[in-house]
Amino acid sequence: MSASFFRKPALAVGALALAGAALAGLATAAPAQAASPSRTAAAACQVPGHGGSYICEYGIAWQTFPNGGKQVFVVGTDFSVWTRYGFEGGDWSNWESMGGVARSGVRIDGNGTWNPTISVVGGDGARWYRHRLDTGSWTGWSK
User: Fold this and answer.
1) How do the pLDDT tens digits run along the chain, 143 residues long?
2) Cross-strand bridge partners of residue 132
3) Which residue of 34, 61, 93, 130 has the fewest CB atoms within a 10 Å radius of its CB?
């Protein structure tokens, strides 16, 4: 799905619905440009070469795996964590929501390993974590 989809003001309601659906499971669109009801709209930036909008002040976090593969994490303008990862051959996955309510950038512990842990400060002010398992899937959010 094109990132330009989310730049069209008439589709802001659709982007908000997508963000809500992402909390229930994985979404495969670009990070949504939906304002959080608890915060004013933050400045949005684009991930160079990857589309999708994220909160500029929270930055971009890159994971590098032992084989050189990459995974990018951002906090979308819906305040959820979003990710995208590279495949062998140069293709990239679609954007996937990892859910959550972030009030900080994504921190990666274990960069350069197969099993990193990501964390963000949540809406409650506590640090929340997800860990990548050997299967490639991620645990749910926990404190």
Assistant:
1) 333 222 222 222 233 233 333 333 333 444 444 334 345 557 899 888 898 899 999 999 999 999 999 999 999 999 999 999 999 888 999 999 999 999 999 999 999 999 999 999 999 999 999 999 999 999 999 99
2) 138
3) 93
Dihedral angle sign, alpha carbons of residues 123, 13, 1, 55: negative
Distances in whole angstroms, Cα of residue 36 to Cα of each of 69, 78, 81, 95: 32, 6, 13, 19
**Contact residues for 83 (Cβ-Cβ < 8 A; gap 6+):** 71, 72, 73, 74, 95, 96, 98
Beta pairing, strands 96-99 & 107-109 = unpaired
